[in-house]
Amino acid sequence: MSQKKTNPTYERNIALCYIRQSYTRDEDDTNSPERQRSNIQAACERNNWIPEWYEDVGGHKSGRSEKNRPAWLALKARLGDPDVVGLVANDLSRLHRKGWRVGDLIEYLDEYGISLVLAAPGREVDTSSVKGRMFLQFGAIIDEYYAEDISQRAKDSILYRKGQGKVVGLPPFGTTRDDEGYLIPSAEGAWYLPDGRFARGEGGNSPHEGAAWRSYYQCAMRILKLYSTGEHGLERISYQLNVEGWPFRDRNGEPRPVERDDIRRVVANWPEYGGLVTGKRGKDRAAYEDYNVDEIPFKEDRAVMAVSLLRAVARVRKERTVRPTNIGVNRETHPYPLIGITYCAHCERLAEYHNNPKLRSRLGGSDTYGKRRYRHKAGVKCGCDNRSVPCEIYESDFGRLIQLLTIRPDSFHLLTELAIQADQANGSDTEIDLETQKREAIALCQRRIDAAINLYRDGRIAREEYLKDVEHEERDIAHWEARTNETEKAAAELALCMDTINKLSRLWDRGTDEDKQGLARSLFSYLVYDLDTQRIVEFKLKPWADRFLKLRGTLYDNDTEDGDGDNGSPHDEGAPMRISSQMRQPVGSIPLGGKSFLTLEAARKVILNRLYQLPTETTSQKTFPQNECNE
Fold it and tell me: Which pLDDT score is estimated for 295?
């Protein structure tokens, strides 16, 4: 492979190392991540390269596509960087199992002068020669055929097992498989502790005094019995099971509280509980299909639940389900501005207390008789008394929060100066002589272009080499022109934040809900809302806005302490918050009187205090109530 001439400004010594494991049958898998890492590390040491690791090893990571391989996509984004010298993998099949993808990759690597190294013993290949490229293409074809052959064998095995009446895939909740592959009741379960948490374990070995054993099989039976009465919906059943302390098992074998979707999964699997094997998964089977419940051919010798109970479940499910009418696109769908980024405050405290992020729940939207509300996730019991809030109340608070973050455009240069002072206070070197370095590097690249032109005119180099050299130098010039010093970087970040916040502030009162939703998601990572107190108790901006938030909170904090503020009173509607007296001083004279800059968390608390005119301690500092744990 022909290597491009590189700029000495960069030291190309970074090797992008990729590890992929699509499926593990046992601990001795020949494609184990540990084995791949060992081979790749040895290859990097032989070439004196610094490894940069990218790994797709969790779950099913097939080499036949790229969409389910986030680490590979991140690696591809780095391939064009000037410090990358090589791509290292254990073997070709770890990269792709599609012939055309391998061909595209080889051309891409050749364009940027990057070496491809296969680290497994006996897999070395010289991509600079025609034979080496042919070997790679032939190997890619073999890998693709192997993947297709395995797929066909797996499909044939599934059809054979289904023909024997054996369920394929993850067993329905509360069941497991015997030695022959048929479903039987599971002996697994969890301990329900007095504080409301669940703990893995075995029946008979209580981990805590007062803990109660809850069997997964008994939980599934309890769900089916409640549903078969026809008196309870999915949401109500989930509440009932949480009150009674029943756990649900996730895919990783961990116990957790029951949710509405869990009830749906159990109810939809009524055929499997009765020994039947269907051609579709439970979520793909329509309950309104035309069948006679009394004539369902359950296999009583294979059933894990009473057939009479399962017939009752099937009857109730069919009676409750209505065949939907296809009316095309649903034009009544409403784009709630804050949906998708708002979390329940009670669920947040539960997630923190149990150290389980899966307990977090987003607020959704509901429209009842034309009254739009933000509504708590159905089927989740977290301790809050109110389950929803009118849209106008929450969105009004959010609008005032945006107004609190705004700053007049004519004060932008003052905010930038304050950002520089903050960096100096933190010991950051903000005055790097980058401009001189940039000018020298660009001038050097331009001289190299002139030299290449002269060599080409004299006939000393071929046109292909001349074009490659010019292209490389022009790319380096563009790279240097894009580099900025700390002052310019701070100004760019703050300008982006101010523009986004001011635009959101202008559109919040008169823009469409769809526009509001897009802008809110572009600025906020999430918000935490307390449905009982109807207040925003926490929020987080995008990482690129953290510097702006710390400066804005610092200004409010010093404004209040110096007595030169509005004491937390909201500003006039439609006008941005005014800058403190310190911000009106000339550039270079914005000292904070010996006061330190706020941290990110403290800045958020100061702004929330202003939003609701609270004292120093905010609702976000509220301790976890013990009674909510017990619920």
Answer: 84
DSSP letters of 430-478? ----HHHHHHHHHHHHHHHHHHHHHHHHTTSS-HHHHHHHHHHHHHHHH
Give the distance from CA 245 to its chain's centroid: 30
- CA dist 268 and 369 (Å) reads 30
Q: Supply the angle between the helices 260-268 and 216-228 in degrees, to the nearest 10.
A: 80
First-residue to last-residue Cα distance in the chain: 66
Under 8 Å between Cβ of 70 and 56: yes
* Element housing 401 (H / E): helix 391-405
Calculate the alpha carbon distances from 178 to 48, 167, 187, 248, 330 in Å. Answer: 53, 12, 12, 21, 46
Q: What is the DSSP string of 231-292?
A: S--HHHHHHHHHHHT-EEE-TTS-EEE--HHHHHHHHHTHHHHTT---SS-GGGS-TTS---
Residues with Cβ within 8 Å of 150's Cβ and at least 6 positions away in sequence, in order, are none
Q: Give kind and range of the element (H or E) at residue 219.
A: helix 216-228
- Number of helical H runs and strand E runs in the chain: 20, 17
Nearest to 280 by CA among 366, 158, 125: 158
CA–CA distance, 375 with 388 (Å, rounded to integer): 4
pLDDT of residue 49: 92
Strand blocks (E) in 212-282: 212-215, 247-249, 255-257
CA distance 315 to 294: 9
SS (H, E, C) 525-544: EEEEEECCCCEEEEEEECHH
Average pLDDT over residues 389-413: 84
258 Cα distance to chain centroid: 23
**pLDDT band, very low/low/confident/very high, at 559 (cuts 50, 70, 90):** low
pLDDT tops 70 at residue 619:
no
Q: Pairing state of beta strands 115-118 and 84-89?
A: parallel
Quote the CA–CA distance of 517 and 512 in Å, as a whole number.
9
Question: How confident is the model over 194-209, as a mean pLDDT?
Answer: 83
Query: How far is the C-alpha of 314 from the C-alpha of 366, rounded, in Å?
Result: 29
Residues 462, 467, 472, 473: is their CA dihedral positive or negative?
Answer: positive
Query: Backbone dihedral region of 378: left (phi > 0), alpha (psi from -120 to 50 degrees) or beta?
Result: beta
d(CA 343, CA 345): 6
The residue among 196, 218, 231, 233 whose CA lies nearest residue 379 is: 233
- Segments in 124-186 forming alpha helices (H): 130-163
What is the longest distance spanned by two Cα atoms in the chain? 94
The answer to whether 192 and 257 are in contact (CB under 8 A) is no
Provide the token pair at 14: 């970074």
Please, what's the b/e burial string for 325-360 (b: 16 or more CB within 10 A of its CB; e: otherwise)? eeeeeeeeeeebbbbebbbbbbbbbbbebbeeeebb
